[in-house]
Prior knowledge:
This protein has 19 helices and 21 strands. The chain is an alpha/beta fold and 561 residues long.
Amino acid sequence: xxxxxxxxxxxNDEYFDEETRLELQSLIDEKEIEDRFYTDLKFGTAGLRGxxxxxxxxxNKYIVALATQGLAQTIVNHGKEAMNKGVAIAFDVRKYSDQxxxxxxxxxxxxxxxxxxxxxxxxxxxxxYTVRRLNCISGIVITAxxxxxxxxxxxxxxxxxxxxxxxxxxxxxCEIDKVNNFNEIKTIDLEEGIEKGLINIIGKExxxxxxxxxIDMAIxxxxxxxxxxxxxxxxxxxxxxxRRVLKERGFTNITVVPEQENPDSxxxxxxxxxxxxxxxxxxxxxxxxxxxxxxxIATDPDCDRVAMAVKKDSDYVxxxxxxxxxxxxxxxxxxxxxxxxxxxxxxxxxSIVTGNLGKVIADKYNVKMFESLTGFKNICAKANEWEKTKxxxxxxxxxxxxxYVYGNLVRDKDAVVSSMLIAEMAAYFKKQGKSILxxxxxxxxxFGYYSEKLISIVLEGLEGxxxxxxxxxxxxxxxxxxxxxxxxxxxIDYLYDETDAGKSDVLRYYMNDGSWYAVRPSGTEPKxxxxxxxxxxxxxxxxxxxxxxxxxxRGRMESVK
Length: 561
């Protein structure tokens, strides 16, 4: 069906409510109509993510109901036991998140699948914990993570507490495709679902358990708990769980950015609520300078990602995900080694586009480092495997995009436990007379100067998607053989080559000096990403390599018509 036919069917079908049809009637830009209907919002292995609005290529209650019908039927196909185990549902602060969560619960209940619905906003890692704690078959969290205010999303988890992989994802997609018309979707009223015992409202008892487990994961207590920290939840879900865990951990000097403390679906003070972007720290840095904070911490709206900045003189140095990940690995491994508490089969997992400083630190402590495809569903797949085989003990997982998880409490990136570890690490080294920057420089002196840079090129809409495909094909079939004095020595095409990590549309190029870069389309945003890594005898040498790789590869990408 052409996009205009789909548009007219939504416009004229009284199944869609008046508000939806009025929104569609108000559209005057043909490109906008095309973008909303030229395709269906893609249900990938992580679920859905897109702009909020009416249309098949938008996040709205009808698309959420359709996805949930597919999930419900998949669970029904797995049998009565799976249906009774149920689905945990959490939601963040974004527009319509609470409504989308209720719709999901109502569709599940109408299909005879038990639903556990949180009574208010929750951090994404709490959902992962809940799936494991309640022995659910699945989980849903309504969130668009760090995307701008116009976006929302729908992430699906399976019984291990991690996001679904391709197998279950394909089962759900198959069931979605069997729904020929929206009116085939089953639904009941929320109150009826509660009365029948199919929808269960859950509250603080889960939060209390989760919080205590994190407190119990502390590594050192001989730390300076008076260290001054400014924290920003960026108007998201992290405000209560992060502040609570830091307070109960004993930290006495935590100051929250007041303008970003409470939920705000418009993210008025930040616009793009991604702590990976240093602009998100504007208010935190101003407050930090005013009170003399030694570190700044910010979490994204669904509180699964966290970034930090460290005071240097009268300003702050912002650490990227590779640096923070390496620092946490160093802190965890060195501390547990001293305590003789490091498992003999300890293992860490990083994504294929994450740098190698963490690996050389792990090598020092004889800890095995594995690589996975991007996304914590892949990182945690290793942890799920080892939970059964006992071959390795998963102790840490991370990726360059400021996602980290410690231990086996949850199976997703967790900014609550990571915030506690960052605060503890800073307080530990402060008591030794060092800042986090001192420790990072010590690591560079010991292992070499590692440098990195991420470039994201935004290409929206159908034309943008087509250009991203052309860029990938151009680089795939005609790789750059030499950059400055650096020569290409090895290529990995994760779409076609056999690797331990698996299959994905990612290209990775290794140069003869140890530098490398990778190119991949984003799985959740209209972007193509370029990851650059280098190692040098000095900071300046490492940075010079980054600069020439960026200029050469980016120039090549932008030259594709």
